[in-house]
Amino acid sequence: MSRSLRLVMAQMDFLVGDVHGNAREVVAAALRARDEFQADAVLFPELALTGYPPEDLLLRPGLHIHVLEALEYIKKRVEGIHVIVGHPQQSPAGLHNAASVIRDGRILATCFKQHLPNYLVFDEVRYFAPGEGGCVVGINGAKLGVTICEDIWNPGPCARLREQGADLIVNINASPFHVGKSAEREAVVRDRVRETGLPVVYANLVGGQDELVFDGESFVMDGAGTITQRAPACTAGLYPVELRDGGEGWRPVPGEVTPLPSVIESVYRTLVLGVRDYAHKNSFRGAVLGLSGGIDSAVTLAVAVDALGPDQVEAVLMPSRFTADMSIEDARAEADTLGVTHRTIPIEQPFAAFLGVLEKEFAGREPDVTEENIQARCRGIILMAISNKFGKILLSTGNKSEVAVGYSTLYGDMAGGFAPIKDVPKTRVYELAEYINREREIIPHRVLVRPPSAELAPDQQDQDSLPPYPVLDAILERYVERDQGIGDIVAEGYDEAIVRRVVWLVDKNEYKRRQAPPGVRITGRAFGRDRRYPITSGYLATQLQDKQDV
Hints:
Blueprint: E1 3-11, H1 19-37, E2 41-43, H2 61-77, E3 82-91, E4 94-103, E5 106-112, E6 136-139, E7 142-148, H3 157-163, E8 168-173, H4 181-196, E9 200-204, E10 206-209, E11 212-215, E12 219-221, E13 227-230, E14 237-245, E15 250-252, H5 263-281, E16 287-290, H6 295-308, E17 313-317, H7 325-338, E18 341-344, H8 348-357, H9 369-390, E19 393-394, H10 400-405, H11 426-436, H12 445-449, H13 469-481, H14 486-491, H15 496-508, H16 510-513, H17 539-544
Active site: 46, 113, 149
GO cellular component, one term: cytoplasm
Protein name: Glutamine-dependent NAD(+) synthetase
């Protein structure tokens, strides 16, 4: 006799700390899964009740009182469907990252995460104790082995569930995006399928939380390692999964397999989701940014418009005595094309006033980078004033290449509440611009082909101070993301003097990055949670020494 089982992957966007609000979302989604999809069970992401990552909120006793209240709320309001939901749970061994299976007012089982990630952006060992054993629950004739995120990235937990009689594995996740992450997830799950021979239903979180963006892409893999269903990236929703047992074990019925987006599309969609959630979850009334006529601010403006809508974005042009006419023309053209309100506020008057105030202090000294930075800080003051007055978040426009080497001004172009392209290398910024222009010209072509310039001095170009961006980005990828040393990078064919200078710039500008706004993480090693380097350190001098001096 053929049997069937219907699960729903609840790929949802939760707000960290809003335990009661998240519980209401869980109840509404569970009832919809029951009534609209006739589901036997609904799977919610890891730590759905607290949102992920709750970080040091987990140290507050009040949070755990709210979690207990939320579990009672779900138990009282949901009947006729199994709810598998993530939450923190105390036990005699400590606090656990847990998942409970709830049905008709009862908690049937609670399992604890066994492998706690403690690398890159993850620091779960700070908060949680590891669990043991496994959790197998019978639902409509099928035995589901319940796992939590990292447990499927390691051999062992799934195999033990198979030994305990599991017919299939369900895995609830909060797996954040970085370039290439989709392939990594599916490869890891395929390893577990080979280990167990069991199909896997992988339900992932979606949404932005500070610098992390969870891209969803929940999927189902059959016992042969084939993807039979995949939910779209960066899109919240309920995705039903049908499984059948015709006597040879439970097998997923093929469903819609949403194609994986290209690398550049996935980056763009992640940036849009990150900006949207950061602005909305922090209750900002729109966004403001400085629009210079350069490629970084052009890409940031396009992201902001797609995230918030053109009516919620304001662009400010702030020309100086060094601003080229084409910069003003291109900035206005993009703002007009996107339907964004824009205004022009020249900085000559405040710049001249600051020079006057400092005239005696600077007497006898030639102009240098100090005067360039004053211009940037004039712009920062103007933009922050607009942000304060109208409750709009200020989006700063610096890219990863600039942030890495300190080619930015504290309290100037670094001012802001969120930095959308903070983790996007300059070469990828150009790729994003081409993607934005894929159907029509939004960013003027001239912006893509003219040499980049901060326009803070006559005839200034970025390459006056920096290596060409393709070279710089290649070195930065090796030093920042791969942790390669100077010798390793030089051995790959890069000029030693350039490598040494780039390394020196990266390390000596850590103090700037500590004062920068958060921004969307899109690489495997972003500045911030990923890369926690000391500001004060003798290591820079050590690695720059000649070998014979050691």
